[in-house]
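Field reference: sequence -> structure
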Amino acid sequence: MRQVGLALVALGIAVPAAAETIAITGRFPAPNREAGYIRRISVDRVTGTDGRALAFSLERALGSAGREVVLGGAPADAGISGDVATEINEGRVEQQREQCTQKNGDQCTKREQVKVICNRRSIDVIADLRIAGDRRGEVLYSARKTRHSEGVTCPGDERPGPIEGVVRGMVDDIAGEVARDITPYTQTYSLRFYESRDGLAKEVGQRFKEAISQTKRDMSGACAALAALDREVPHFAVAYDTGLCAEAAGDYRGALAAYQRARDLRPRDAVDFNTGIDRAQRLIARAEDDKAGRTAVR
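Structure field:
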């Protein structure tokens, strides 16, 4: 466990002083792992009224995410294409609104609910997109992305934004989501230590409590204490917290084993532990991709 403690120091793990949490920076594969391997991607034909706008948005979003984007027709490992449909509906709708119905000079003396005729506007953008490999033509990614905007404007309300601006924002949002789907990423996140002492003997529970408190001032020492406890007693909270220390130190397989052990010891909290298991598996996948040189984004 001394190696884990040294690794924590080397990584410069930041710990908020007011809570028993640990901040970790992890490297994750793209949600669509295969698409994350693409090194050079072209934005090919995107049809539809707003297809050109979506194509440009995809170029910007992918470039901002660190992907190498080339123009359609240039040598690429894969190309993204698709179709986008935009539907705009406007009509009148009757609503109840409070209005002044009686005045004394400039002062309103009576307000009532009255029926008013308002304008309703709804906008839907639906994009069907896919990424196909240029070498074998295999589909690496396929998704339908939808965005919906709806609002009612009554007399006296502020006028809604121009339709073109709303649609452009929705198109940009879709492009950003696609880029996130297919791009490996690095994320800093905070995780809270489990503090439950259920089932622990009094003396062991006190040592566990002290170790958790120690995380606020000496993370390496706290992790060493948790590891010692984990070797002594099988307990779900101790196992989980040992997993957090391992994850922070970059020992993702050790973290995975600890989270699985915690789940086995406390099945009723499986949802919490499954989150850690899934995260550790994704961290392992990215580490394997980096080692094999498959990751397109460094």
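Note: Confidence is low (pLDDT under 50) at residues 1-18.
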